[in-house]
Amino acid sequence: MAVKDYLRERFFPHMWCPGCGHGTILNSLIRAIEQLGLDKNQLVMTSGIGCSARISGYVDFHSLHTLHGRALAFATGVKLSKP
To answer: What does the alpha-carbon distance between residue 27 and residue 74 come to, in Å, rounded to a whole number?
Structure first.
């Protein structure tokens, strides 16, 4: 798959402030997923609150935008229910 296949391109340009590193983090994450050849139908991203949590809105795979401080608990639940 190409990098663009992992992104929701209709949501770009992103909402982060100029000079913010979150766009770079998103780019690095997507490139790593693409290089590993991971199937986007087998991926789940969990996120909490704040600017970094908005990354889940830009990825085109399953994502959960969770309550403050609960992202790891949700991720654990996902792993336990669908290992």
So the answer is: 24
Cα gap 76→64, rounded to integer Å: 12
Predicted confidence pLDDT, tens digits, the chain (83 residues): 677 778 887 777 888 888 888 888 888 988 999 899 989 888 898 998 888 888 888 888 888 888 888 999 999 999 999 76
Residue 16: strand, helix, or coil: coil
Concatenating the DSSP letter of every residue in 17-81 gives PTT-SHHHHHHHHHHHHHHHT--GGG-EEEE-SSGGGGGGGTBSSEEEE--TT-HHHHHHHHHHH
Q: What predicted TM-score, i.e. pTM, was given to this entire model?
A: 0.77
Nearest to 66 by CA among 41, 39, 4, 52: 52
Q: In angstroms, rounded to a whole number, what is the distance separating the alpha carbons of residues 30 and 36?
A: 10
